[in-house]
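ping. complex inputs:
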Amino acid sequence: MPPSIHLGLSSVRQHRALYAGSFVAVALGVALIAGVVLLTVSIGDQGPEVQDALSLLGVMAGFAGFMAIFVVSSTFSFAVTARRRELGLLRLVGAAPRQVRRQVRVEALVVAVLAAVTGAVLGRLVALALAVLLAAQGVTPERVPLTWDVLPLVISAGCGVGVALLGAWAAARRAAKVPPAQALQEATDTGRRIGVLRGVVGTLCLVGAGLMLVGIRAGDPVLALLLSIFVPELVVVGLVCWGPVLLPLLVRTLTAPVREHPVLGLARANVGNQARRTTSLAAPVLAISAIAGSLILSLSFAADWDQGITRQQLAAPVVVTGTTTAPTAPAGAVVDGRNVVAVATGGELASDWTAEGIDPATAVATRGIRTHAGDLSRLTGRTMAISRSAVFDAGFGLGSQVRVRFPDGARMRLRVVAVVEDAATLHDDLLLPRKLARAHGARPTGTWFVLPAPGTDAAALRSLLTRTSTGTGTGTGEVLTAEQWITRIDRAQRDQNQVGLVAILGPTGLYAGIAIANTLLMGSLQRRREFSVTRLVGATAAQVRRMVLAESAMVATAALLLGALVTVTVAALLRAPMTAGLDDVPLTVPWASLLAIAGACAAVTVVAAVLPVVWLRGHPSPAADHQQ
Amino acid sequence: MSTATLAPPAIVLDGVTRSYGSRAGRVDALRGVTHAFAPGSFTAIMGPSGSGKSTLLQCAAGLDRPTAGRVLVAGHDLGRLDEAALTRLRRSAMGFVFQAYNLLPALTSYDNVALPARLAGRRPARAEVAGALARVGLEAHQRRRPAELSGGQQQRVAIARALVTRPQVVYADEPTGALDRTTGRQVLELLRSTVDAEGLTVVMVTHDPLAASYADSVLFLEDGLVVGHLARGTAAQIAAAMSELER
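pong. complex structure:
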């Protein structure tokens, strides 16, 4: 066995505590990913509601992976800093930098493999729990039986190992740079300098994010929405790369007023001096606040935008929902029912769509469909129209001949005659002539837009419809004013967003907690000598505890401020394309959710800071390091 | 010495015993040490490794609690003080200088020296802190952090910090252990002159006869017991006494 591998193995055994955080992070990440993948494979082909649930779970698992990289890299970076003397000694007795690097990577591999195996086993339990949850929520009719296929578990475990090695990569490089002389001196590395590579990656991320921000401002609403989800990630990575330079500066500036306070001033000096520890603490809070904050605001603005469009375009004052039977309207009134059919477009690489059959004149009258290009009135025969935002996704546009297959097996080529403005609440992205859609199996969705006959009153129409729909026994139908309907759709949309956010923020918050607790615990281990010196010069144990708490609070505040800045920037830029060309777009800022995030970050930090402090209760003895 | 014996001792060790339970059985680090350190005295404690000299220092400073026996510092029985009271006593009456790693890495020299007063809830006068640094010859290095100072300079900052609160007792554990001979000598001369000028009591653990020769007297320890005492010894005499012990 090469010495670096042997050393790596025994080092993991010896420094178990140092690697506990990495282990937990990777194991949890693998468990989540494995659970989701396993469930997806087990469910197989299912309806759109299940698909939505699965893609939500997928996003959740993705976030878990993203956060796991953070935790692992900060844990390993810490482990390396904590062991500088030991690594220096290794170099002193003849280890080449390459061997030290390999040793750290072996350590990462050992931790990762153990964690991945544990995670894969746990993944089955996660999948089971999710299956029960989906059934309980009525998303699936009954509990999905889980497959015994091991491939999903192997793949997830592989992801976990990859994530861990990626996270430990930088730490291994840094370990190899420890000079042999380090064995003879106290660690003086405050880590305020960052490597060239780190600087370049950080700068690239920030520049990329800047370009994307310009794109948000200039682009169309859907692209802007997409960018607004990616920008925060880039900004966070960029800021974390530059963190050791940036964060101490920010914290020192923010806390300048407490400079002279004995405990707070000391906390401030520590935060400013220990750049790497500060960055490790700030990273999870920054990540969760920036990403979740932007996501919450973006989704809320998207719902606002949707509502604005609907309000602008919907001409019908009455909407009947919940019945697949057309309401019996008086003569002269226009009834425009939605009916949809699943279609596959393209040849070899087919993609699935829901297409809506419309009568162009009626739909324009009731739903105010706006043509962006082409001529919607030519939507007859073998033709189709497409939403503006779907053009990019679909890969075809005005004038294209699109190969289409219907559920009844019919295949044909349809010519795109119009591109219409987006109105997700009012119509689907693909529009077909109503006759064509009906002929190939289109079914009513249960939503009917009704326009009263010229000269008649909407209220009268509504009461008449209410009477007839209850009178004739279709029963289930409900007659709403346009405004009632819009409100209802909007609320459903926001509720759905909320569920998604909880699903994503749950694991992300958990990770942030692990990362912070880990940093603080390991930091406390590493700082025993520092604490004991602080005690020797006359600090009480309570003052040391207050100092640790103050440090956490300062870093968390700085990180939250940065997160808020990212959120506000993204949201402000996103607002412009979302209100362009619309008269009445509501502005909904979900303060409760945003405050909940800030609160969660603060709570996680305080709890994680209290942990080592409680652990230190007996420990910050002034003699701690003179006893051995 | 005759005047010193009239005043109450600065530190009294009265039958101090310290045992540690370990897997291999009980280890007695100190087995009943009794000694009084006169105020204004500079005492070196020497002995082979494992003789209990570091434990003695820690018990005398209230960093470690004796298994049996009493320790009095400036008239206070340390065993009767709780952790908070002990901390207050430490702030007001004791200073510490250890082999290395004495300073907080995040603070400048000035802030390190000012820290004890600040922790006690007092803002030290600029002149007070600057004066303490000037006394150890580091007035020009106030704004430097420990990482930017040499080992000897760090040790001098530690001494400035130990002295700034005008304590009655300073405990030093191998204060020259990490320094070269010349720098070490400067540090010892500094301690010596403070004892002479300000009537400070210094207890210093060392294994270096030359360092011990700066002290008024040397206490020899072996297997947790005081086995010898030498007043005003030269380095050669001390070395001879040590090798006698280690034989």
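The beta strands of chain B are 11-22, 25-37, 42-46, 68-73, 76-77, 94-97, 169-173, 201-205, 217-222, 225-231.
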